[in-house]
Amino acid sequence: MRIFTKKLPHPDLPAEEKAQLLQNSEYQEMMVESTFMYLTLDLPTAPLYKDEKEQLIIPQVPLFSILAKFNGATEKEYKTYKENFLKRFQLTKLPPYLIFCIKRFTKNNFFVEKNPTIVNFPITNVDLREYLSEEVQAAHTNTTYDLIANIVHDGKPSEGSYRIHVLHHGTGKWYELQDLQVTDILPQMITLSEAYIQVRGFGDSEGGTPGG
What we know:
Layout: E1 2-8, H1 15-21, E2 30-33, E3 39-42, E4 49-50, E5 56-57, E6 60-62, H2 63-67, E7 76-79, E8 84-90, E9 97-103, E10 105-107, E11 112-114, E12 118-120, E13 126-127, H3 134-137, E14 144-154, E15 161-168, E16 173-178, E17 181-185, H4 187-190, E18 195-202
Parallel strand pairs: 3-9, 6-12
Antiparallel strand pairs: 1-2, 1-8, 4-5, 7-8, 9-18, 10-11, 13-14, 14-15, 14-18, 15-16, 16-17
């Protein structure tokens, strides 16, 4: 992928000083190309609303909304101890298999927080062509991915548990695994879970074979 980074002046500086700093080469956007092992998808901050019966309402977000991070145009601010940066990302090459890591956990000095937002995702036909730079789109005949495995985290960050949904390619059936328990599961139920890590492969419609 291409990673574009632009340093930001300190927000407390006077406007004139900020304008002067933005003219310096140190504050101009820079681009590097980097390989990736997986794509980290950032969840929006999750306000936990309550309905009339004081029941918590868990927010939801479409997969394509959080994938927009990699469209080459979406900017996000990253903060370090001393400095702030704007970054944007653009994919330049797609592998046969993709791993999505949905960033549910954030750490501070005292504890780990978990974002319970449900990600609405299709099981099949997730097309990433629009996230590729225009000059490399023609080189990719395969850009559509189907889900192969879905890892779910249930419960609190410190005492939760994991489940995994796996596609049996020979039969096209989905199974849920937790410890030594294996049960059938409907694809519609998979999309209701707090997905944490997903593995996707080129879809059959593109000539690929998810799961090998």
